[in-house]
Amino acid sequence: MHQREQTIFALSSGRPPAAISIVRVSGPQAKGALELLAGRAPEPRIATRVLLRDAEGQGIDDAIVLWFPGPASATGEDVAEFHIHGSRAVQAALFGALAKLDDLRAAEPGEFTRRAFENGKLDLTEAEALDDLIHADTDRQRRQALRQLQGLLGDKARDWRARIIEASSLIEAGIDFSDEGDVPQELVAPALATIESLLAEIKETLAGQGRSERLRDGLIVAIAGPPNVGKSTLINLLARREVAIVSPHAGTTRDVIEVQLDLDGYPVTVIDTAGIRDTVDPVELEGVRRARSRAAEADLVLWVTDTEHLQNEKEFVPAAAALWTVRNKIDLGTSDDGAKAGQGQGPAFKISARQGDGIAGLVTALTSFARDYFGSSEDGLIGRERQRRLLQESADGLRRALALAAQGDELIAEELRAASQSLGRLVGRVDVEDILDKIFREFCIGK
After folding, report:
1. CA-to-CA dists, residue 246 to 2, 45, 151, 237, angstroms
2. Contact at 8 Å (CB) between 34 and 80?
3. E strand or H helix that includes residue 106
4. DSSP label at 422?
5. Nearest partner of 261 among 230, 298, 235, 225, judged by Cα
6. Cα–Cα separations (whole angstroms), residue 401 to 162, 206, 255, 319, 374
7. CA 285, chain centre distance (Å)
């Protein structure tokens, strides 16, 4: 039996122990599994209490079962759900009983969602949105993923593709009737008008996205600077817990430490890096190398300094990243040199990481930076770079089609076919087999 024709099962709820765990079964043997373990298949979509028993008649659990005949199910196949008590022992007993049944096997990551995609229950943009919704850490990530899951981008892509196909049919009809005098021009003119309208709509969608796809991964803020200026103390304050070792000895932080923050719904990853200085210690030298590397990848660098360490941040921080100067230890006094540190390098902040002075203002500024950085991402339709790239390919094809209007209908038709294929790949209905494994492999088991 082909792998996709087999019946699969997996835990679809959180890991045990838990009050209730849900085990889902999908495939042609789902009803048979219900009948063997529950004694019967209940009425469709009616929660039914049963005593589950294994093949030897031994009790497994007092449970609730549900039966969803395909194609009216989440995967489009026959689906059974076992709502069991969430102990490891009960789950192991049920998994053992299911594994002994013919043509049943444990599901692979994302296999339930992939079957739903293959059975037309959702398109590829909705499948990606489901994955984003599962992994959403902040409220804004959740809202963006939910918009995608509701099919907003997929619906638009299908409408655009249908209109491209309509325009293409007019162009190709003109080619077929090219010997009929003025007939071709009567067909080409409305097709070109449709192409112009489509191109304007797709360009508007692309231009209005800002950095909405970055909302999935979040803003990256690197805390950098010389040793012993309070970088680790600062990240502990931002995280509101002890995540980094604080020590008066230089070189304590050897590796990169990451903390995930939720600033007004915006996901922010704050990175504490090793103190940047010249050193001969090979371990600390590797820490400095990693610090420079992560600072180069960051969207914002907080260069932390104090009155005793006034290194020029320009020597260490790449020009591509936004740079803020944070002068720490203001509780120890000020100096003219310290006041001048960071002038001309973007916003400057004065804080006392030890006493917490100035931290609230810094967090407020970080929240405003994140809001400006993500822009109107919550209203955007594009959630991933793959989606943006395919939309851009479609727009480029439409643009080339218009540019070739005077050079022959065959060339226009070819560009329209390319634009249509890009939109087809966007929703997963044209030539996407090579990317399906990559996308669904990122899902958790049971989805």
Report:
1. 57, 57, 48, 12
2. yes
3. strand 104-106
4. H
5. 235
6. 16, 19, 52, 39, 33
7. 34
Return the residue matching tokens 């509701």.
Answer: 150
In one-letter notation, the amino acid at residue 220 is: I
User: 47's torsion region: left (phi>0), alpha (psi -120 to 50) or beta?
Assistant: beta
**Residue with the two structure tokens 């099919």:** 151
What is the full per-residue pLDDT of the chain (447 aa) written as tens digits?
A: 566 778 999 999 988 899 999 999 999 999 999 999 999 999 999 999 999 999 899 999 999 999 999 999 999 999 999 999 999 999 999 999 999 998 899 999 889 999 999 998 988 888 888 888 888 888 888 888 888 888 888 899 999 999 998 888 888 776 655 555 444 566 778 888 999 999 999 998 887 655 566 777 788 888 887 777 788 888 888 877 765 444 443 444 445 677 888 888 888 888 877 555 444 456 555 656 666 666 677 888 888 888 776 555 555 555 556 889 888 888 876 544 444 444 445 788 998 888 888 989 999 999 999 888 877 555 567 878 889 999 999 999 999 999 988 787 788 889 999 999 999 999 887 655 555 665 676 667 777
User: Which tokens go with 92?
Assistant: 């192991």
CA distance 294 to 316: 12
CA 257 to chain centre: 22
113 vs 77: CA distance, rounded Å: 12
**8: enclosing H helix or E strand:** strand 7-11
Is it true that the peptide bond before 17 is cis, omega within 30 degrees of 0? yes
Rounded Cα distance, 174 and 177, in Å:
5
